[in-house]
Amino acid sequence: MRIGLLGTGPWARGVHAPALAGHPGVEFAGVWGRRPEAAAAIAAEHGVPAYEDADKLIADVDAVAVALAPQAQAEVALRAAEAGRHLLLDKPVALTVPEARRIADAVAANRLASVVFFTLRFGGERVGWLAEQAGRGGWFTARCDWLGAVFTTDSPYAASPWRREKGALWDIGPHALSLLLPVLGDAATVTAAPGPADTAHLLIGHTGGASSTVSVSLTAPPEAAGVVLELRGEAGVHRLPEQGVPPVDAFGKAVDALLAAADSGTPHPCDAAFGLRVVEILAAAERSLADGGTVRLPAAADPVPVPGA
User: Are residues 149 and 66 in the same domain?
Assistant: First the structure.
């Protein structure tokens, strides 16, 4: 599979490009970015061509890996899907429900493989742990605290305009949902309340009867940053393993997943349809933050898949 990279920011440069260049099962076919000089630098580092036109790169490959801000990703991902290219997307797939739905519909209409890179869903013992918990059942409640220090440190992502505008709900919220939904079931209701700065607190009612609480932030003190996921139910108390894998390794596993989905025709649990559902829940949480009260979600078009399904 020939894969082209769309994007030249820190995530593209530090994760996508080295993972694609080092993957034995794909050909890293080229780079396009909105900053031609950055595309040229990444291309030179990995010995691939730099493209001045995104559509030309799309035309030359079998799949695209997208590392762009969500609003830019939504536009280019739709063009790639309509051109019949498989998609390896970042989260969130878009910032509006209509845009996310257009991408998912194009993937389905063209029978394409798609994978959304929720980092903790790929690589390491956390993957097996999540599948094990999804298979247990009998969960009563869960708590996910995902507190980042992007805006309180010298993180290269602190200058991101879309993160400044949309905050942790849209940047970290997708990760938390990607862990909770496969275990507790789809979200039926969401109630959101603001915390300090960009912090958001969510209370989610799940279709299986369980509830979960989610706290996300990009402005936590560095000493308070970290990820905690705790599940409580008939099987007792289970916590997400602390040890993960480097993002480059996780992205390599996402590439493996795209290859497997393209080869088998079986959608991956983290496909564009799941990415759409995550956007629907985030949009509902945003409405709750703005208006107060609980937002009831319509049923998902497809059941929320579980890991390993």
Answer: no
Mean pLDDT of 182-191: 97
**Which of these, 115, 113, 83, lies nearest to 274 by C-alpha position?**
115
CATH classification of the domain holding 112? 3.40.50.720
Q: Which of 173, 193, 170 is nearest to 289 (CA)?
A: 193
The burial class, CB within 10 Å (0-12 / 13-18 / 19+), for 209 is exposed
Kindly tell me if the per-residue pLDDT of 309 is higher than 70: no
Q: How far is it, in rounded angstroms, from Cα 131 to Cα 115? A: 17
Buried b or exposed e, range 238-256, using 16+ CB within 10 angstroms: bebeeebbebbebbbbbbb
CATH number at residue 183: 3.30.360.10
Amino acid at 20: L
CA–CA dist 30, 192 (Å, integer): 42
Q: Please give the Cα distance from 51 to 72 (Å, whole number).
A: 17
Could you give the maximum distance between any two Cα atoms of the chain, in Å?
56
Q: Tell me the pLDDT of the chain averaged across its residues.
A: 95
Residue 260 has a CB neighbour count (10 Å cut-off) of: 14
